[in-house]
Amino acid sequence: MKVKVATKILEANDRIARENRKIFDGAGVFVVNLMSGPGAGKTSLLEKTLAKKDGLRIGVIEGDIAGSDDAERIEKFGAPVVQINTGGACHLDANMISDVLGDLPLNELDLLFIENVGNLVCPAEFKVGEDMKVMLLSIAEGHDKPLKYPLMFQESSALVINKIDLAPYVDVDVSKIRKDALSLNPGLKMFEVSCRTGEGLDAWVQWLKVTAGKHRVS
Amino acid sequence: MHEVSIAANLIEIVSEQCRKDGYKKIESIHLKIGRASGIMTDALLFAFDAIKTDSLAKDAVLMIDEVAVSGRCRDCGRNFTVEEEYVLQCPICGGASFQVSGGRELDIVDMEVS
User: Quick one: which H or E segment has residue A43?
Assistant: First the structure.
């Protein structure tokens, strides 16, 4: 006997993501799913953002396969932080986020960063309840990344290009990164920064404040 | 890369529907997997066979239709299909304004039960 199923395989995850999103909206918190390959500088970008946050109340969920190093780095800035260990899984999913929502003072936050597991492939597939995805790429990873990992560039609202201070030392064509990323996603907002020197970070934080602020008013 | 969690989601969905509809066993499952979905068919088949034991799908085989990446160009108004996992420009006129409509599928179409 043949029976129709007509269901998306990720429907169970998407449903929990929608429930998470409702909780975030109810608390008035804007949620950014921050994604990149390992070592691109996600935690460094969060540290620099926390140092420039002014009045913005920011919380962080740290996703890693193992360890709590990242959460400890964030804690030093006085921000509420929860560490999730995926125990081997290559991405965060909506259920993992749902499990830790009670551990964060959501009503006292304006902005919540969900730092995904370092991986350029899988995190782009799984919604976690975010308002937007932001991806980070360090120039040392090479200019071929947009075409090798197109999905992440297509799914993101903004691309932060990090370690721009290394440009004189590595054979990378940053304009090709920008061009290919824009071809994949014409609406992509791009920032070139160096978390080490501080270059470009003001523009990123300013944009974040405006974007999160718009959400609160609406 | 996460084919095991995809296979687990799949088994959960079909098992629930099989039970709900009052059947005992799933014989085959028909899927549509887009070429831009990030899922490798071979890895999914392997993962499914590895974890299907002890479920209503323990004897089930997967039948997978791969779906090519396709879209419609706003400049020339034509529909296109590409070989790659992404589209950078309209393959017909080279235009940069296009809408991708197919290739991201991860869908369960139907299944054979008894």
Answer: helix A42-51
